[in-house]
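Narrative of accomplishments. A recurring question from our advisory board has been how the design workflow behaves on a single, concrete structure rather than in aggregate. To address it, we present the structure tokens for one chain from the evaluation set, followed by the sequence designed for it. No filtering or post-editing was applied between the two.
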């Protein structure tokens, strides 16, 4: 197994640990307060994402300011929405719905980027959607607002990724990271004032851990893409579903039934098959990053701060 794949496995595992900690704040803190402090601490490892020759004073010299501002809003909406989902519905269900993001990316790539999506990929994406329906089973069980916010997170995340692809090559990685971080911290910081709760030291420690885990995972993804093609790393993101089941069962008494597990299996298999169906244009589509592998090898497009 390539070393880059092992690094990616560690990265997505750290993200899952952070998400499990987010869920521990259910009924304790508001989503904006969680997002604010987590993103503050994520800046610590993010400092090391700066490339040699880049300077922080140049971070906000933008070639496409409006697109990056819109992307910042979309990323903020996605992070707030998925945080609410983590704190209100089972982790595995939140992940399965969030993994519909490639569906929205494909739709937007056709509409906005005028790309051609082959029929095989549409079939596999539709199969992913069917898998999510099996997990959630609308009409057969009670749905909650958290299921809707997970869908909103997938749509907003898809919008964020599509806008990223539109500015790819015209903005520095530093600018993209800085703009995303600014919206996450400023947006959550302002909104948390309307429902602020004084933190205890254990809560403060957990928020610090969430941010540090996410920021470290971000650096690991960068390292992984420097050591292995995206086509090998992309399937690893689905390990988050396995962690969601494990953490949900161990710490939150969340036990998916047999039908739900079958649905999760469909989501994973369809997602992995979609990655291989992409050929030379493999994408890693998640809340934090988007990469492509081209024929000449893996090319870094962007890694952003954790949208927790």
């Amino acid at each position: 197994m390539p070393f880059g794949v092992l690094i990616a496995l560690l990265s997505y595992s750290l993200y899952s640990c952070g998400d499990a900690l987010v869920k521990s704040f259910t009924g304790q803190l508001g989503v904006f307060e969680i997002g604010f402090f987590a993103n503050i601490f994520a800046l610590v490892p993010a400092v090391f994402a700066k490339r040699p020759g880049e300077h922080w004073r140049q971070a906000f010299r933008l070639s496409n300011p409006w697109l990056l501002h819109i992307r910042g809003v979309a990323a903020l909406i996605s992070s707030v929405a998925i945080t609410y989902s983590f704190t209100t519905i089972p982790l595995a269900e939140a992940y399965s719905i969030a993994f519909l993001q490639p569906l929205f990316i494909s739709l937007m790539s056709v509409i906005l980027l005028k790309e051609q999506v082959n029929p095989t990929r549409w079939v596999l994406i539709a199969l992913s959607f069917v898998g999510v329906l099996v997990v959630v089973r609308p009409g057969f069980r009670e749905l909650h607002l958290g299921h809707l916010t997970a869908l909103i997170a997938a749509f907003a995340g898809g919008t964020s990724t599509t806008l990223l692809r539109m500015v790819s090559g015209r903005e520095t990685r530093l600018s993209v990271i800085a703009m995303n971080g600014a919206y996450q911290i400023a947006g959550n910081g302002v909104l948390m004032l309307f429902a602020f709760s004084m933190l205890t030291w254990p809560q403060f420690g957990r928020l610090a851990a969430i941010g540090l885990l996410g920021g470290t995972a971000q650096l690991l993804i960068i390292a992984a893409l420097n050591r292995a093609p995206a086509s090998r790393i992309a399937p690893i993101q689905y390990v988050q579903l396995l962690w969601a089941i494990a953490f949900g069962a161990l710490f939150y008494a969340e036990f998916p039934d047999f039908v739900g597990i079958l649905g999760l299996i469909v989501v994973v298999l369809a997602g992995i098959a979609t990655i291989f169906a992409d050929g030379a244009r493999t994408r890693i589509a998640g809340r934090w990053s988007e990469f492509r592998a081209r024929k000449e090898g893996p090319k870094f497009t962007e890694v952003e701060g954790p949208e927790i």
